[in-house]
Description:
By secondary structure, the protein is an alpha/beta fold. 49% of the residues lie in helices and 16% in strands. It has helices at residues 6-13, 17-25, 32-45, 50-57, 74-88, 107-118, 132-143, 168-182, 199-215, 231-244, 258-268, 270-275, 285-293, 304-319, and strands at 61-68, 94-101, 123-126, 148-151, 162-164, 188-193, 220-221, 225-226, 248-253, 277-281, 298-301, 335-337. Strands 6, 7, 8, 9, 10, 11 and 12 form a seven-stranded mixed sheet that branches. The N and C termini lie far apart (50 Å). The model has no long low-confidence stretch (mean pLDDT 93).
Amino acid sequence: MDRPTIADLARAxxxxxxxxxxxxxxxxxxxxxxxxxxxxxxxxxxxxATGLIRQRLDRxxxxxxxxxxxxxxPYYRLLGEALQEAVRTSPAVxxxxxxxxMDDLTPGAVADRLLKLGADVDAAxxxxxxxxxxxxxxxxxxxxxxxxxxxxxDLTAQARAGYxxxxxxxxxxxxxxxxxxLCKAPGKVGIFVGSHRYLCQDxxxxxxxxxxxxxxxxxxxxxxxxxxxxPRYAHESTLDLLKRNPDLVGxxxxxxxxxxxxxxxxxxxxxxxxxxxxVGHEITEDTRSALIDGVLKLVLSHPVKGLAxxxxxxxxxxxxxxxxxxxxxxxxxxxxxxxxxx
Length: 342
């Protein structure tokens, strides 16, 4: 006799095939009473995946908190959506995501928001500049049994549960490789960071310079400009940089505000932005258009879906009783975009 199919299970439980699929794969929430009815029918007809259904129903409830930067920044809106989806579809838990966006990025404000978030979640992840206030908040939450992950930018807090993000040493050197090899001739190269308090950006700049010292010393790297993670300020700074350095050949935007840099380059016209090899971070609608138009030559980006799934899986493991010392995931591989592979 053939073993029962999903269609057979759906008929036995008096539900649709799509409902059975949701129970099996955890893709969408199903009312507990409906899920129990599917389980009872599976046991009655000897459905081969009864154990999986039972496992799905036995998943613990977990609330995961994420403290992200400004909602106005397209990348963080995309990331917030990906995190919601990763928590919702996690096969390990019945999850709830609490996602908060910060406009005030001062360390004291971030620390306060983190402590408030930590009071209501089983584990947290935060994108923050490295600062003693943030370290103190992580220490306090760790003492309460709430693991906190450094997300996207690492932190020096010893009590952090781990870091989920890129290998920024490789990111910066990849950006340097692109600028040095795509420029038609050596010359001046500008660098933007949002703030050196973000360790990811500090490491990107350091490794960018390291590559040039090692492989392309004929280029002149200028002192970094700070965008303060603000596109308006980055726009003004870009116009000033181009005015003071009309012979600029390369530009690396290692921090936030890339939208302002793009706008500043566009203001100067095609002759300027086609001449300058500009590398930025994160694929968004703005950076995608800039790649197509030649304003940017290369974009190095977090893989949003993979980053979200890695963070959620690590946070779930860390929130399990007795699992606090489990190894954290290694760096997430980054994506490389040009106009030709969009």
